[in-house]
Structures are given as structure tokens and as C-alpha cells.
Design a protein that fits this description.
The complex is a heterodimer. By secondary structure, chain A is an alpha/beta fold. The longest helix of chain A is centred in the N-terminal third of the chain and has 18 residues. Chain A is globular, with a radius of gyration of 19 Å. The N and C termini of chain A lie far apart (50 Å). The mean pLDDT of chain A is 93. By secondary structure, chain B is an alpha+beta fold. In chain B, strands 4-3-2-1-5 form a 5-stranded antiparallel β-sheet. In chain B, helix 1 packs parallel to helix 4 and helix 2 crosses helix 4. Chain B starts with 33 loop residues before the first helix and ends with a strand. Classes of the chains: A alpha/beta, B alpha+beta. At the A-B interface, helix 1, helix 2, helix 7, helix 8 and strand 3 of A face helix 1, helix 4, helix 5, helix 6 and strand 2 of B.
Chain lengths: 197, 233
Amino acid sequence: MSTPTRTDYLALRAKAIESLMIEKGLVTEDAIDAVVEYQKEIGPLRGARGVARAWVDEDYRKLLLEDPMTALDELGAGGFASQRVVAVENTEAVHNMVVCTLCSCYPWSILGVPPAWYKSPEYRGRVVRDPRGVLRDFGLELDDGVEVRVWDSSSEVRYMVIPRRPRGTESLSEEELVGLVTRDSMIGTGLAQEPAR
Amino acid sequence: LTTRPRVNGAHDLGGAADLGPVPVEPIGPVDNERWEDVVFTLMLGGAMRGVFGVETHRTAMEGIHPALYMTSSYFERWLYAIETLLIEAGVTTAEGIEELVDAVASDPDRELPRGTDPQLTEDIRTILADGFQGEGWPDRAPLFKPGDRVLAKVIRVEPGRGHTRSPGYVQGHLGVVEEVYPPQPLGEAIVAGEEKTEFVYRVDFRAADLWPDAHPLDRVKTDLFESYIKEER
């Protein structure tokens, strides 16, 4: 038998608490199945659709910036941890990054399940103070003249970044553009991808 | 005044720049492990059934010993907080939990009863689809407006007992109100058993005002409840 890992231990511990809560009528296996099912439905695709549409449709871009909830509702992207979303736009002069320093608040229904690094003490601690250093961890070097705005999700408002449209994408369709919008580009730790040549 | 991180607990991380590089992973789909989905659902179930809530759950996480907090994973902290809340609610005891863990460990493949409560599944589906509702506009006016210069008050709480959503790094610093958001439930009031909402303001801070080593161009935008700020003349 192999040595139990920390994950094995936590799975066991979670099962113990689950058994207690089932016994007390506070949770059911069906409820867990519903959560698993929901997480399969969500993902960064919803946010990516909003960004791609904003790139090709000026009216939609304005709507996403001024009334994001209406804009995102059109894409069916409301829901868990995204009751109020604010979209912020990268430009030549401004780069935006999103964090939750106090816990790890994240717009689940728009970006899906958060990656582990987003929830790490390293990211939460450093990004407000040294966003450029954090970007270097992600392989990005920002021009010294660019202003970085870091949005700390300390209330129930959730933030998403509209990355800049990559060069050389004028001929691409909205659907093709969706594929260039990565999760990290909507958190602000990455840029939208260049199209494959 | 030098703002130090972690003033109100290990979770109050903003500005802690001494932790090393971010553990970057390649971009790709993220899937929770099964036990993480279980813990997530335990939290939703407990909240739906009124044993605890988002605010008490956060407070319990903030009370985790700093050494454990910094070395545990996200849903691991969720699990420990749920245990604390179940004990506080009188559902079980610390010893009871360890006995259960031992029992499961001795027969790890044992199937649990599924439990039946169609309404709970329905309620959880609704929460996932619509999110927690709690915002609203009260019949009073906000105290601050965009453009107001405000000072973030110094707020000290005992980790695990008190609660605040004001990050330590803004406290004692000046910022400018950028946006007024509709009132939201005030966590510390809910933890104290009181129903209360407050306006939330997005406040813009110069990073270099918060940390002398920050880049002069950079800004930090922090959402602060009305009682966290005061007018600066």
C-alpha cells in the first residue's frame, strides 16, 4: 500500500464531515452531483464570448463597460459569485489586473473554476504592491510607461478584464476571436493570444 | 505610517511581497478534485439550511492559525472552517469529528447514505444559477460621492471572532471615491447576529502612497463599505 498523501487525508476528512452532514440533513449526494454538474458547465468561454463581441461590436463594447450585467446576461453569464460584475478595459496606456487579497473571490460564472495560483498567498499578497513583478512571473514584461490598475475584490462586486485585441486579427470572425481570449487575459496576468500563423 | 499586511489575520495578505514567486501553471481547464466539490457543497448546504453563512464561514477561515493558513490549500481552509462552524453550532464536537475521521479511515471505501432532500438540490441549483442575492438600494442617500477624498479608518479585529472586509493595507491611507455601488450585507454585522447593509464605494489609491517601493504610476482600487471610510477635508 502506498503512503497516503495530503490529498488522500483531506478527501477522507471531507468524507467524514460529509457523513455527519448527510446524517443531520444538511447535505445530500444529489446536491454534490448538482455542484459537479454546474462546474462542468462553467468556464472561461462565457467571458471570452463577451470580450470577442466587444472587440467586433462597438455598441456591445460600450454596453459591457457601462452596463456589464445587461451585456453579460445576453450571453447567459450571470450566476454564482457574479451577481455584479464590472468590466475594465486594457488600453495602450493602462493594464488591469484582478485579485481578492482577503480570500479568493472570483467571477466563477464567467471565468469558471479559479486556478490554484489565483488563490495562492503569493499572488494575493504581491499583486497589489508589485503587479509588474507578478507579470514577470507569468512571462510578461510591461512597459515602464504603462499604468497598472489592480482591482481588489473586497466586496461582492466581481471584476473582469477586457484584454486588448491582438494585432493581425482584423480578418478574424467573432467566433475565431473567442479562441484567442484566455482565462489569464481576463484576470490580467496574461494577454490575449496572437493568432496562429 | 507604514501599512503592514496581515494586521487582522493571516488572510489579510495584500502587500505581503515576501512570499516568493507566484506558482504559475500553464493555461488550461481547471477541475476541482472530488473532495473539493464535496467541501464546496457542504458549505452551500450549511448555508442553505442556516447553520452558517458566507460571512461566518469567512470569519472562521480567518481564525485558522497563520502557520496552517499559509500552508493549506483553498478548500482545505474551507473544510476546517466548516468544522469550526459545526462545532460552534453544537452539531458536533472536536472529539466527535476526530472519531468520525478515524471511522472513515478504518473503512475508506464505505458508501455513505445518499440522503434525500430534493428541495436542497433545487435551492443549490438556484444559488449556482442566480448567485446569492442581497443587494438593494435603501431609502437613504450614500454619504460619499465620486471625487470625495476619504481616509480608510484603522480597523482592528480579533481573527476568528471579529470580521472586516477592509484590507489592512489601505487602513490609515487616503484615497478618492470613484464609484458608489448598491448596498451589500455588512459581514461583521451578520457575524454579530445583526441584519445590516451598507453602501459600498470603490476607492482609488496610489500604490506608492500605500508602499514606498511601489511603481509611481500604479493604482489599487479597493471596495470599501461606508463605515470603513471617513471624509478627509
